[in-house]
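Inputs:
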Amino acid sequence: MPGQDPALLPPEHVPSAEELAAAARRIAPYARRTPVLRSEWIDALAGCHIHFKCENLQRGGAFKFRGACNAVFALEADQARRGVVTQSSGNHGAAVALACRLRGIPATVVVPRSAPRIKLKAIEGHGARVVPCAVSQADRDATTRRVLEETGASYVHPFNDSRVIAGQATATLELLEEVPGLDVVMAPVSGGGLLSGAALAARLRAPGIRVVGAEPEGARDAHDGLVSGTRITGRPTDTLCDGLRAELGPLPFRILREQQASVLLASDAATVAAMRQIFDHLKLVVEPSAAVALAALLAHRDAFAGLHVGMILSGGNLDLDALPWTTG
Amino acid sequence: MPGQDPALLPPEHVPSAEELAAAARRIAPYARRTPVLRSEWIDALAGCHIHFKCENLQRGGAFKFRGACNAVFALEADQARRGVVTQSSGNHGAAVALACRLRGIPATVVVPRSAPRIKLKAIEGHGARVVPCAVSQADRDATTRRVLEETGASYVHPFNDSRVIAGQATATLELLEEVPGLDVVMAPVSGGGLLSGAALAARLRAPGIRVVGAEPEGARDAHDGLVSGTRITGRPTDTLCDGLRAELGPLPFRILREQQASVLLASDAATVAAMRQIFDHLKLVVEPSAAVALAALLAHRDAFAGLHVGMILSGGNLDLDALPWTTG
């Protein structure tokens, strides 16, 4: 879970059209242009036409590489030399580590001691330094500040960062380019980097399109915050979607409000069922945090009847020894 | 398992360059141009550069749709009207059923009573008539002959058919077009439609390339037949690769000999491990019969050091409630 310590947040601004275009150019040599796949079977089930943008097939197995790559390669040479620091127990840490390896600069990832060993391995596998800390957000922030002071490195927040949001937006830019005429673009929402990037890309390339987030019922702060108009913080979460437990960041919240994005909810049971449909019919490995988007659509299928929906499958990193339909 | 009754075999001829090009044009409106994916992790493990052609993402979840589609759409209108008959307990039956539905003509699939219900559902789901028969090859052939006499339909063999082989060749044509400079093209071999198609595509587009099949140790008739120069029939098989239990057909055998293709073996345990690598690192659902190619490469990695290998992931149809690493 990322730090909400204001001292760690970069200057907030809404990325411009130029910044989105620059992000697309900047990451093109490193990121994969992921395929868009279809399933007639899932379309029949959903009663609409779904175009799946497969970010589980992105480098590192998640869209996170786009934002991290853009942020890391956007640094000026003298800044870059001092390296990059981030906090993450998930895909963002590994993505920053990979991007720094590609640029040849040092990366430090502050990781709570509770993080699964498999995630640590992914981060260390890319040559990053892992700094363990206690689980509390205060300790994570203190550790991060200490590392920043020691190294003079740059901080790259997982989502509340305009460079990261511009990077995530490139997934939707590619989707809109490949599939003209979409009615809706849909993506999971947690901190909000992916969905706010989608909203900005849609404003730029397909202004009439609806932007819809998907969130677990047990971590519905984005849904409730956008409905009430006030960002929600400090709520406990209860969901198996381990990538969706962060709170919507201030900058993504602002972008999503401006773009009139909405959020639909799905139960964890529906998410597991949707994940199984994706394995069975798209032949893709996705994590629960990605499948939540299909689950939310299926739970509200009347709202999508006959439409063309672009859906971002956000990632595919999970423990295959403990698939949720085999473990209960 | 397909019939070996000579009366059921179509005239054997090696498809020409023109027939391959015609197949590519014929199936283009219906088949997917599947993506080619990479994994740095698997490349590091293998010590070479593997370009995975993802036929698990093909319609119907397997390359089989290419050959079936070409055979069905190659029929003259008056022949086509009387429909198509095949024998299959696997992916070919569903592929013929789907191709016939797309052309709007009747399909009949003769299926042994031992076939898993999930396969029957896939065939019936495409609107084909399923005719059950006893398990023996003699009964399958007799039932097929009876249906052919009753209907006047055309028989489409799963692999010993030049239209089917030309269709399967299109997977390799696309791969060679997308990835110039490959040293090797590798695919699983059973009846031999996919591998002989690969050999013909390679002869046409990349004459210097090595063509390598992969086969389970417990169903090694293609390996032994190509080494000895005599096609092997009537051997029992013992492998969990349920798509690789057919015998190499006479026409594929002839093509593979002419093209000097070789076959490498893999144990089922190595195939399960390779399948898990593909799930974990490519984020793709593949069946054991597809993973055998990676397993065979890894078992002989010295032979591939530093090379660029195109590998056809042949299919992704399996029961996800019984993944081999969870069921032991």
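The first strand of chain B starts at residue 36 and ends at 37. Flag for discussion at group meeting.
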